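Batch job 17 of 40 flagged for manual review because the log was empty.
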Amino acid sequence: MQTKINVGFIGAGKSTHRYQAPFILRRNDKFTIKTIWARNLNHIKWERIPNVNYTDDLESMLNDEEIELIVVSTPVMHYEYALMALEH
């Protein structure tokens, strides 16, 4: 039996909430969204996804050994965030 892949998102904006997260949520037999990181939790304009941890602590998300896949969903700094995720 295959286990679900735990996903973390870097970025909590439109791309995450309108496009990427719904795609993953429809495949809940294979994926679980565990954590979504936002630079500032008070600036999230989208309805929060139930049962998902929202954090402003990027290091704790990157160091979470349960997260197996990181989706970089930011308007800028894709390379820097992808490098951080790979290094962790």
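Reviewer: the log was empty due to a logging misconfiguration, but the result itself is present. DSSP finds three helices and four strands in the chain. Unflagging and moving on to job 18.
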